[in-house]
Amino acid sequence: MSRYLFAYGTLQLGCAPQQMEGVVARLREVGKGFIRGRLYDLGGYPGAVPDANTPGKIFGTVLELPDVPEILRRLDVYEECDPKSLDTSEYVRELRKVELIGGGSLTCWFYRYNWETDERRMIASGSWLSTQRNLAD
Q: How many distinct structural domains can be found in the chain?
């Protein structure tokens, strides 16, 4: 089991909604990283679809998880990930290799968007944070 989470949206530090602030406060930032794939704008949050064969990158933050099993359960509920019903889950939690910006890589938990993306706007930069900053300007 991984001790790390790759957060690319609202679970990044400083972005968590009120109901997740207590959980996110228990995570420790390790560094910035990316995985290959496409990032989509789903309204108030993003959805990531990994694809090792694309030049696109999904940028985010690697966070260290505390040794508390309840944390992953709370993250799953927030991400609407039901391990017993993955076909109906909006996100699926899976392990992915994350390339660290400073070099090296870590295997991290990652929430993959599990629904159709046909009608969704792709975030070309691969960074949901940059879109949020642009909205604030």
A: 1
